């Protein structure tokens, strides 16, 4: 049972002033989201199909294991199939199974607790997610990506650093800008970032990215790709980067860095560290240093290999997609949970007497836990299985919720 003494650390750590700003952030965000929907309704406009997720996306259930997915085959296009048709729906589904305050507090911290700037940043991000079909891309998952790129094993998450942050490994030499379209590269970035989001373990709220620069060449330097990664993390996943380790960068990268450095927010830039192999133990326990980034003094001979979907995996996806009744029930239960949470939430952000806040916060935490539980059930209908799911690194959402609650 949740009590005033067992509220989550993020609330306990906030000052009275910061709590008030978080409440105002919630109030203003919901007002702006509702205004977006009202404006769209007045103009008779519905959000259109996304340019990333839905153009050329593929139905996993139609692809046989081992078959190379035809990236532009119109037979696999799912254009027009949307998970949510309003900004309000999209907002509640975007919260994810993290703590219900996590998304909004990230934007608040990114804008140094300036509520109006934080709200505008979040609204712009919500519009972006709607425009590109972010939720739809997560649902399609790997089948709408370049399978050959997945098989390069160039980017993956493995283990946690000394700060408890999940570590994303990127072997830059395996990226060839001439062999992948930018649209497909963007899909890969988003699916990878969403995987990292599921790997977070409270109270840790950020990840570490390790850019392995061994054997780097100019054919690997993709400024458009890097620009998209930087902008996506700063604008849409703020406060999610704990550290970026640039490992064994050759002298030729110096010129590239002079171009990239001005793109970074000063706070983000301060998290970038140029290191050599000998420095890895400062950040990572030796037993978690993989052979791929330290071929001499590695602590484990584990190597990432993309886990190919099997026939059983495709049959599972087909079964889930066909379960319209189960999906409708899960969606309605989640909708009912967010209506319940929103009612308590409005009571919370309208508090004028701080002496009454503890009791309301307890009710809010209980409603929030219920909200996340219902979304965890809905998650299987909204998230395509990835290599991380097939290998057991990311369990079912209901199990992820148990781990992070």
* Rg, alpha carbons: 22 Å
Q: With helices defined by DSSP (H or I, 4 residues minimum), what is the helix count?
A: 17
**Topology, number of strands:** 5
Biggest sheet record: 5 strands, mixed
Task: Give the amount of beta strand, in percent.
Answer: 5-15%
Unreliable residue runs = 49-80
Query: Structural class of the secondary elements?
Result: alpha/beta
Morphology: globular
Name the average pLDDT.
86
Strand order of the largest sheet: 1-2-3-4-5
Give the helix level as a range of percent: 40-55%
Structure description:
The chain has 405 residues and is an alpha/beta fold. Helices cover 50% and strands 7% of the residues. The protein has 17 helices and five strands. A five-stranded mixed β-sheet has the order 1-2-3-4-5, covered by helices on one side. Helix 2 packs across helix 5 (115-132), helix 4 crosses helix 5 and helix 8 packs parallel to helix 9 (223-236). The longest helix is centred in the first third of the chain and has 28 residues, at 16-43.
SSE map:
Elements: H1 9-12, H2 16-43, H3 87-94, H4 102-110, H5 115-132, H6 134-140, H7 147-150, E1 155-160, E2 166-171, H8 182-199, E3 207-212, H9 223-236, E4 241-247, H10 253-260, H11 266-269, E5 272-275, H12 280-283, H13 311-322, H14 324-349, H15 357-382, H16 387-390, H17 397-404
Parallel strand pairs: 2-3, 3-4, 4-5
Antiparallel strand pairs: 1-2
